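ok so i was messing around last nite and threw this chain in just to see what happens. nothing serious, just curious
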Amino acid sequence: MIPLMPIDTNDWFVICAALVNVAMLRAVRRYVNWIHGTMIWLFNFTLAVVVDHVIADKPFDFYDVMDSPKVEFMDLFLYFAVYPPPVYLFLILHQHLTQSRHMRVLLIFGFTAAITGLEKLASTAHVFTYNEWKLIYSSPVYLVVLLLNLQFLKWVKKQTNAA
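result:
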């Protein structure tokens, strides 16, 4: 059984962010094929877990996630309910609003800035405690994550259309 810990600021942040994300996803869910959505969700959950543990754990130890170096329930909730939805929304908007190259570039950089801003809010709530990391380092990471997601969605669509 997972021991229950007192709920503090970072836990409340994760809970509130997850609720906002669920509301947002309910509003846009009809725009995405459920197979594509599930694959994107799993891809981002896995990507978040792997990247956070590679750069947040030893030997790098760039930052700490949540309250403990050990994986807690709220860590998993963070990876499942907070990380994937903004990327999911980005992909929906990219699919429906990017008729021009200018709009695609604007959307990619706009979401990079927005997700970096969400990280700033999360760090203010002590979801992240930076050791050697600086917020400015996150923007190129999010840019790469968004571009990887575009390519992954293209691949998923190709695979599901071939089946």
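not much to say yet. The longest helix spans residues 135-162.
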